[in-house]
C-alpha cells in the first residue's frame, strides 16, 4: 500500500489531536507513517502507533528544536527523497502551512492548503464560501503536499506497528536563519485550545467590555468549549489577541461555533465559516452573520446567553 507521510504536531512529545485526525484520514488513501521532528518521540510513539502509524520517522537532533519551521521542511524533503511517499499530510495550522509551502518549493510539487477531506485517489476536498461550495483538487505535479484543517475529520484508533526509524537530517545554512532564543510557557487555561476545540464560543464588539466576557466564558465552560473573539474585541483589549478568530487570527472549524455580538465581517467569516454548525446571537436581525447561521437568535446577548448557559448547566445536572 502506498505510504503517506503525516507530520506530527506536538509539544515536547504530547501529540496534538489534529495529528491523530490526519493519521486516520491517511488510512483512506494508503498506509500512514508519522514524521516526528524535535524532542519527546518516546512519549509520542505509542499514541502514533495506536492511531495507525506503521512507521514513525524520528528526527530528534538537538539543533532541530533550536530553529523555526525551516528544519521541518528540510527533514520532510529529505524523507520524501528517500521513501517516495504517495503524499505528505500536514496540519493546516499557521506553522503547518509554512512548512507545507517550503516543502512544496523544495520538492517542486503542487500543494493544496486548508483541505477538509482526502479521497482514495489523493484528491483533496476544500470547503469554501461558508461551506456553500465544495472544491475537489488534485495535485498534478510531484508529490502532493496537503495541509488539512484541524477538526475536519474524526480521529479513530487502528493500532499499527509504530516502528521507530531514525532520520539523520542534514540542515543547510538557510535552515538556521531564524533561531529560537527563548521560550516562555503560556499560562494554560483549563479550556481546550482554540484551533483544536470541538466547540468554540466567541464574543465580539457587542460584548461591550473585558468584564462582560465572563458571560461568554460561562457559556463556553458549560459546553467545555474554547473562547474566541472578533478582532473588534481583541483590538479593544477585552480579550487576548491569541483568541482572535479570522483572517488575521486563527482559523477554526469546530463542530459547533456560537457567535455572540459579532456582525459577520468577511475577515471574521474567513476564520470560522467551515464550522459544522453555526449558532448566532445578535440583536440586529440584519447582521450579515445570520447568512451563515444554522440557528439564529435575534436578541440581546446579555439576556439570551445567560439563559442558554443556565439551561445547559441544568441539563447536565
Ligand atoms: C486586513 C483586515 C484584517 C481583519 N482581520 C480580522 C480577523 O481576523 N477577525 C475579525 O474578527 N475581524 C477582522 N477584521 C475586522 C473586521 O473587518 C471587523 O471590523 C470585525 O470583525 C468586527 O467585529 P465585530 O463583529 O465584533 O464588531 P461589529 O462589526 O461592530 O459588530 C458588533 C455586532 O454586535 C451586535 N451587538 C451589539 N450589542 C449587542 C448585544 N448586546 N447583544 C447582541 N448583539 C449585539 C451588533 O448588532 C453587531 O452586529 C479585519 C479587518 C481588516 C481590514
SSE blueprint and pairings:
Elements: E1 3-7, E2 10-11, E3 14-15, H1 17-26, E4 31-37, H2 41-50, E5 55-59, H3 70-83, E6 87-91, H4 94-107, E7 111-115, E8 117-118, E9 124-128, E10 133-137, E11 145-148, E12 163-166, E13 199-203, H5 213-223, E14 226-229, H6 231-235, E15 256-260, H7 266-269, E16 277-282, E17 295-298, H8 301-316
Parallel strand pairs: 1-4, 1-6, 4-5, 5-12, 6-11, 7-11, 13-14, 13-15, 15-16, 16-17
Antiparallel strand pairs: 2-3, 8-9, 9-10
The structure holds flavin-adenine dinucleotide.
Flavin-adenine dinucleotide is lined by residues 204-206, 230-233, 244-249, 261-263, 265, 267-268, 271, 281-284, 287, 300-302.
Characterize the structure shown.
It is a single chain. By secondary structure, the protein is an alpha/beta fold. Helix content is 26%, strand content 24%. It is built from 8 helices and 17 strands. The protein has helices at residues 17-26, 41-50, 70-83, 94-107, 213-223, 231-235, 266-269, 301-316, and strands spanning 3-7, 10-11, 14-15, 31-37, 55-59, 87-91, 111-115, 117-118, 124-128, 133-137, 145-148, 163-166, 199-203, 226-229, 256-260, 277-282, 295-298. Strands 7-11-6-1-4-5-12 form a 7-stranded parallel β-sheet, sandwiched between helices. Strands 14-13-15-16-17 form a 5-stranded parallel β-sheet. Strand 13 (199-203), helix 5 and strand 14 form a beta-alpha-beta unit. Helix 3 (70-83) packs across helix 4. The longest helix has 16 residues, at 301-316. The protein is elongated. The termini are far apart. Bound molecules: flavin-adenine dinucleotide. Flavin-adenine dinucleotide is lined by residues 204-206, 230-233, 244-249, 261-263, 265, 267-268, 271, 281-284, 287, 300-302.
Amino acid at each position: 500500500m502506498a505510504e503517506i507521510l503525516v507530520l506530527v504536531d506536538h509539544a515536547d512529545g504530547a501529540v496534538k489531536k489534529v495529528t491523530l485526525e490526519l493519521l486516520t484520514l491517511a488510512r483512506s488513501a494508503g498506509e500512514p507513517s508519522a514524521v516526528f521532528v524535535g524532542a519527546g518521540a518516546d512519549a509520542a510513539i505509542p499514541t502514533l502507533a495506536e492511531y495507525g502509524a506503521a512507521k514513525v520517522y524520528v528526527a530528534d537532533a538537538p539543533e532541530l528544536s533550536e530553529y523555526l519551521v525551516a528544519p521541518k521542511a528540510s527533514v520532510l524533503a529529505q524523507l520524501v527523497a528517500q521513501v517516495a511517499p504517495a503524499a505528505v499530510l500536514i496540519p493546516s495550522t499557521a506553522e503547518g502551512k509554512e512548512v507545507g509551502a517550503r516543502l512544496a518549493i523544495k520538492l517542486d510539487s503542487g500543494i493544496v492548503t486548508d483541505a477538509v477531506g482526502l479521497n482514495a485517489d489523493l484528491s483533496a476536498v476544500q470547503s469554501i464560501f461558508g461551506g456553500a461550495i465544495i472544491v475537489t483538487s488534485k495535485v498534478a505535479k510531484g508529490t502532493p503536499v496537503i495541509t488539512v484543517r484541524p477538526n475536519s475529520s474524526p480521529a479513530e484508533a487502528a493500532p499499527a506497528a509504530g516502528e521507530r526509524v531514525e532520520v539523520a537530517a542534514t540542515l543547510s545554512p538557510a535552515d538556521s536563519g531564524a533561531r529560537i532564543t527563548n521560550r516562555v510557557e503560556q499560562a494554560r487555561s483549563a479550556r481546550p485550545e482554540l484551533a483544536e476545540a470541538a466547540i468554540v464560543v466567541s464574543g465580539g464588539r457587542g460584548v461591550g467590555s473585558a468584564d462582560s466576557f465572563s458571560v461568554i466564558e460561562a457559556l463556553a465552560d458549560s459546553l467545555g468549549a474554547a473562547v474566541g473573539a472578533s478582532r473588534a474585541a481583541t483590538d479593544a483589549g477585552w480579550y487576548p489577541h491569541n483568541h482572535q478568530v479570522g483572517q488575521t487570527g486563527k482559523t477554526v472549524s469546530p463542530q459547533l461555533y456560537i457567535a455572540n455580538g459579532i456582525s459577520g465581517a468577511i475577515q471574521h467569516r474567513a476564520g470560522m465559516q467551515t464550522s459544522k454548525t453555526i449558532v448566532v446571537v445578535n440583536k440586529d436581525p440584519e447582521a450579515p452573520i445570520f447568512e451563515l447561521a444554522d440557528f439564529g437568535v435575534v436578541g440581546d446577548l446579555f439576556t439570551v446567553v445567560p439563559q442558554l448557559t443556565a439551561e445547559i448547566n441544568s441539563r447536565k445536572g
